[in-house]
Amino acid sequence: MHVAEVEEPHAGPGEIRIATRASGLSPGETLIRSGRLRDLVPVSFPYLTGFDAAGVVDEVGDGVEGIVPGAEVFGMSTMTRRAANADHVVLAVWAPKPPSWSWEEAGGAAGAVETATRVLDRLAVPTGGTVLVQGAAGGTGSVVVQVAVARDLQVVGTAGEHNHHFLRSLGAIPTTYGPGLADRVRALVPDAVDAVADCAGGALPELVVIAGDPARVVTIADFDAAAHGVHMSHGAPADETGAALGAGADPFAEHGLADAVALAAAGRLRIPIAGTFPLAAAAAAHALSETRHARGKIVYTH
Description:
Elements: E1 16-25, H1 27-34, E2 52-60, E3 72-76, E4 88-91, E5 93-96, H2 103-107, H3 109-123, E6 130-134, H4 141-150, E7 154-158, H5 164-170, E8 173-175, H6 181-188, E9 195-198, H7 204-211, E10 217-219, E11 231-232, H8 257-265, E12 273-278, H9 282-290, E13 297-301
Parallel strand pairs: 6-7, 6-9, 7-8, 9-10, 10-11, 12-13
Antiparallel strand pairs: 1-2, 1-4, 1-13, 2-3, 3-5
Helix pairs in contact: 3-4, 6-7
Protein name: NADP-dependent oxidoreductase
Organism: Pseudonocardia ailaonensis
Keywords: NADP
């Protein structure tokens, strides 16, 4: 991985371009970089990284209304265009940067918010129900917890004991991950768990037992999902069966960014930051992500 000069992108119809202040690192990109996803995500070089970013609008594409150069926003590039870890980024969806968020928070927010919204919408747990979030202290899991709490759900979150105070601060009931999880959850929530959001991977058999039905488990991290009858949700354009959407379909029609702005204004959503790195230290950022113990989102500053 290295920093290089590439051709400057420009906003097309329905897009905006920002001068980037911060951008996020997705754990999935460490898998792409390492080659572990070579069969699922073919890569041609040079491969440009990054999916979510925040910055100041400096170009507005045709057909875009309600925003002008100089506005502060956060948002996402398209899955095919990516390249958000750069000085200038073209965004396909965006929302105003909440004043209460730092640039680092805003730069790492959009992907986690979109994922949390997508997963919780699919699980459709009724108000007052209980959801277990596996891997609740990570960059995505911590946002899933907060969005679920904002939906008036009871949340049980798994994390190492050193992160239990952190989970309580987000509104979750903490417990440790690993063998015996079903018994620990049963002791905490005698009335059973309605659904499980898996943000960590590696524990689907026990998570299915906890949920009582594989249809009540959604994972974003376990590529063995199909073998367990579990739905794997991802940011690529896909419908509820996993088939590719047709041309022109909007995979982010319900991306949740507007709701995130409202939650941030109410003091109900923060983006925990595990570490900030300049782009030149991207290898160190990937190394932190690969420990699988980063508490919150890893971001680049620009």
